[in-house]
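My current task is to audit a protein record that another person submitted. I need someone to confirm that the token line plausibly describes how this chain folds. Take the sequence as given and treat only the tokens as open to question. This is what I was given:
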Amino acid sequence: MRVLSLVHQPDAASGVFADASAQAGHALDEWLVPRRREPPAPLEEYGAVLVFGGAMHVDQEDRFGWLRDELRLIRRLAGDGVPLLGVCLGAQLLAKALDAPVRRMPSPEVGWFDVELSPEAAGDSVFDGLPERFSTFQWHSYGFELPAGAVPLARNDRCLQAFRAGDSAWAIQFHAEVTREAVGDWLRSSRPEDDGALDLERLRLETAERIEGWNALGKGLCGRFLEVAAAAATRPRPAATTRATSPRS
């Protein structure tokens, strides 16, 4: 199966999700959307789409015009039943594409925070096997609400953390894909006005202690999503509107 990653900046790429894809024998293409007009291959060749994070926000379409185009693309992919997994900004874009509110939070959520599974997560094909409560790496200042008809999968006292829309689209606010190197890059480029007053050294130490286990959890989560996508690829897909299109079509 061929997998497409929608990437918004070089230091927020596929991370350990690329490892999970390779381990499952899939070919993964990264598309740096702000710099390239077209995906690496026609969209109909991809059996799954991953959408990652970035320092931009969903309400900054005037500043980042490609966000508007990508939102239309995600809406079409979701409508066509293409398996989607959105992470952080990618999750917020999926929520917005499904007409759910996405807003700035009272304060950023940056660092390691516990998340609890919702009762609805029991039996979910992607969240199956996750502990009821687990520590997650977060870096965001916006949050999403639950789209109409979607199923909540995880939350904490700050915001909704995950949902499933239909049987082919998942959104996670936490960075299950992030690597130790990416965290280092984000710490070096952290802006207090956006990320709050961070204890950078403490966050480095916590990350060093937790990242190995976190990466194992992330690979497992992505691996289960790719299993769902691979199974869906063997079934006929409804007539699609994504054929031969791109975000700027």
User: Anything to note?
Assistant: The mean pLDDT is 92. The helical segments are 16-23, 66-79, 89-97, 180-188, 192-195, 200-233. Residues 2-233 form a domain with the Rossmann fold fold (CATH 3.40.50.880).
